[in-house]
Amino acid sequence: MKRVLVLVLTLLVISASCFAADDVGQFAVEQKMADAVVSALTGNSVSYEQISDSFTANMKQSFTPSGFANMKKQIKERIGTIKNFNFVSFTRQYNLKNGYNNVDDLVYYGVAGKEKYARLTVHFTEENGARRISSFDVSPINLAPQKGAAKK
Q: Which of 28, 51, 125, 147 could form a disulfide with 134 if both were Cys (CB 3.0 to 4.6 A apart)?
């Protein structure tokens, strides 16, 4: 009986890992593209032209090189110079009635200075059989003051 249970559990583990293999590969592709966006926003090592290859056709039309430069300028004015972003989560957008809507979100948190933080969300969708960046946004994170932290 123990051997049968061990065999069944082993088969379940193997089948579960096979189902997840496609998701892991897709996540790796998306994370590589999102990391390029992070590099473009935190420094000058990656250009708009390099990251725009990952954009959907619609995003390429609406988000031009000058729009990207303007976005970087606005981020610097609102939040400051973002020193780094760290990957935090991978989310699949899912509707209970319709199921997976083919949109994934990768979320990064970044540090822009003392008491200044930012959140980067990169949205992916499928276009012509390949994963593409459909949009991304950077927003400031405002930390609420901790209770009991009275000044002395």
A: 125
Strand partners, 55: 133
Residue 19: pLDDT band (50, 70, 90) is: very low
Distances (CA, A) of 134 to 9, 16, 60, 63: 40, 30, 9, 10
Rounded-to-integer distance, Cα 130 and Cα 133, Å = 10
Stated pTM of the model? 0.76
Give the H/E segment covering residue 5: helix 2-42
Domains of the chain in start order, with CATH, are: 24-141 (3.10.450.50)
How much is the pLDDT for 24? 76
